[in-house]
Amino acid sequence: MTEHAYIEDIAAHEGKGVTLKGWLYNKTDKGKLQFLLVRDGTGIIQAVVFEDDVSPEGFEAARAVTQESSLIVTGTVRADKRAPGGYELTANAVEIVQLAEDYPITPKEHGVEFLMDRRHLWLRSSRQHAILRVRAEVVRAIRDWLDSHGFINLDTPILTPSSCEDTTTLFETDYFGERAYLAQSGQLYNEAEIMSFGKVYCFGPTFRAEKSKTRRHLLEFWMVEPEMAWADLDECMRVEEELVSYVVQTTLKNRAEELKTLERDTTLLEKVNPPFPRLTYDSAVEILHREGVSIEWGDDLGAPHEVVLAEHFEKPVFVHHYPTQCKAFYMEFDPERPEVCLSVDLLATEGYGEIIGGGQRSASYEYLEQQVEQLGISRQAYEWYLDLRRYGSVPHSGFGLGLERTVAWICGVKHIRETIPFPRLLGRMYP
Ligand code: 4AD
Ligand code: MG
Question: What is the mean pLDDT of residues 14-37?
């Protein structure tokens, strides 16, 4: 028996015999020679099956094997400059584990709905594989950076009695007769945890019943949310730019192969290093007016505004001091100008828009009590949150980075639906 090897480690086996276990990606039939493109999740390699090198059953298997059949191929690893990845396998045995018939996704073009209905199979294609490997790398880089900068990972509940963001996007569910909402954000709980741990983060799925179909909204998405006691707005931006730069540079380094598969032009990503430009909301509105984009002071920035603003910069740009009226209830207002708040959004380059929302939280019991009254959710559900301002309230800040939007930006994919294994979209919960 030869050793089971993974394709990504194939270089270490040059000249030796290995067994590969995987699926048939593609095949070229040249009579006595069968060229099998085999993938195993870690890579793709061509196995060359010559009739004289294998048993008659083995050769028949190589001839009969179809796209996405599972198979086991044994052979000798040979370096070959022309081969993608630099290696080939000269096969001496081929065994079909399960013969796949009429695999529906073929190399020809398919419509998006067709592919979305078959998302469970679509994941096997090289482009989806590359995007999701990048996603895993981004997750790892985020955790690496936070874990090595004093942040404690404490995850927050998904079933909650209260709302953190826009109350119109709540998913409601029954909690044995009580009303519960799926978490829109872990922030409020993070704010409790920092009073015990100083710096924390949660990283998990969050839910928004977004009623619009756009290329940057999911109903279920993943968000990493760092929160820091004693940090002001400025410190918040400093942490954001450090984290985002680390994530981008690490991904460029460790997932270069995948970004090449995606044909991502990485010129601008290579420039993602601190400091990022900072823009007040007021100057953002000025720029937009100069560009002839309509917006009234007080309106939140939407995707079209963000695209125009980002075009002015080669790096992600911070927009801070938004009007208090267009941000969430917990934002600290500017004591000198209460009509604006200490909030900050980070806009990615190349039209990918807002990837982070955050800022400094109000430390005042009286102000938050008033704000909670206006939410339309029972004050009782926020009693614990108000306690945090009763017992040792401190200035503090934090933010939420949307994982899928960040992955879409790094990969250069237009629609966020490809950046999560099984997207939840308006009108789609299958598969
Ligand atoms: O700006 P948002 O709503 O901020 C919060 O939820 C804060 N409580 C976070 C915090 O300060 N701890 O969302 C943060 C980020 C956005 O910038 C965006 O990247 C992403 O989450 N996001 C979405 N991603 C995909 N689909 C959606 N429907 C999203 N809504 C927000
Ligand atoms: Mg936001």
Answer: 97
Identify the pLDDT of residue 84.
81
Strands (E), 208-266: 220-229
185 pocket-lining for ligand 1 (C-beta < 6 Å): yes
Any ligand 1 atom below 6 A from CB of 353: no
Which of 233, 247, 405 for a ligand 1 pocket mutation test, highest count of atoms within 8 Å of Cβ? Answer: 405
Cα–Cα distance between 292 and 351 in angstroms, integer? 18
Please say if the pLDDT value at position 228 is more than 90.
yes
Closest ligand 1 atom to 184 CA: 6
* pLDDT value at 54 more than 80: yes
pTM to 2 decimal places: 0.97
Q: Show the CA angle centred on residue 121, arms to residues 119 and 122, nearest 5°.
A: 60
Residue-wise pLDDT for 72-91, tens only, equals: 999 999 999 998 889 999 99
Cβ–ligand 1 contact at 388 (below 6 Å): no
Q: Please tell me if the CB atom of residue 210 comes closer than 6 angstroms to any atom of ligand 1.
A: yes
Domains of the chain: 3-98 (2.40.50.140), 119-419 (3.30.930.10)
The pLDDT value recorded for residue 238 is 98
> Cβ–Cβ contacts within 10 Å for residue 124, how many?
17
Residues 125 and 151 sit within 8 Å (Cβ to Cβ): no
Could you give the residue ranges of the DSSP H alpha helices within 123-210? Answer: 126-147, 187-197
Task: Name the β-bridge partners of 341.
Answer: 333
3-class SS at 347? Answer: strand
- Cα 82 to Cα 21, 41, 50, 63, 88, distances in angstroms: 23, 22, 18, 23, 9
DSSP secondary structure code for residue 420 in this structure: S
pLDDT exceeds 90 at position 212: no
